């Protein structure tokens, strides 16, 4: 099977071969996919390297024609400007590569503007703070729109750990932590009345949580619930806390 790569900033990955279908994930600029099935018209079912599958428009992809060299990085700024990038801008999470002092997006040579190169991330919380007020977007995992698990999975990737895309799968990763022992960068999970994991956010160890709910926002984590800072209204019920970076 031929690999393909995405030159566009952030492309919806849909549950079915239709622009009306649910956006279940995104393919970000510089990422590769494998075409699994052909659909009607330009629709193809693809698989991401992490195994996530969905449908997208073939016209949003280019075939991989050569062996890629260099060190891969994900962009860390909410938005970054690059010469040679389609549209000129990349959101946080896009994949670029550095090789011999030059930068590449897929098979394009690109040039970062000042302040656009990816920066080291030592804390998921500290990076996620820079994403505050990014709008909630179901299926989103870039600096131009996140869902809850998209925010957390990108934060982990920037710290060097690959975790599953969805919150229910992320809940199985790492070590269980008691709420009283919560520390910076622990990951809190929340459930619906039936006990199903439906939400996730990042802890600072001081009683606050960063999560994507309406927007990327900071709220209070107290007595097994998320309490909105502005009115102390409870919004989510805690299911457990996991530690991904012991």
Task: Give a quick rundown of the structure.
By secondary structure, the chain is mainly beta. The chain has helices at residues 124-129, 148-158, 167-170, and strands at 3-5, 10-14, 23-28, 32-38, 43-47, 53-57, 62-63, 71-74, 79-83, 89-91, 95-99, 102-105, 108-112, 141-142, 145-146, 175-177, 184-191, 197-204, 208-213, 215-222, 225-227, 234-243. The radius of gyration is 18 Å and the shape is globular.
Walk me through this protein's architecture.
The protein is mostly beta strands and 246 residues long. It has three domains: 3-63, Roll (SH3 type barrels), CATH 2.30.30; 71-112, no CATH class; 124-243, endopeptidase fold (from Nostoc punctiforme) (Alpha-Beta Complex), CATH 3.90.1720. Helix content is 9%, strand content 44%. It has three helices and 22 strands. The strands form five sheets. Strands 8-11-12-13-9-10 form a six-stranded antiparallel β-sheet, with no helix packed on it. Strands 17-18-19-20-21-22 form a six-stranded antiparallel beta barrel. Strands 6-5-4-1-7 form a five-stranded antiparallel β-sheet, with no helix packed on it. A hairpin with a 2-residue loop joins strand 20 and strand 21. It is globular. The N and C termini lie far apart (38 Å). The mean pLDDT is 96.
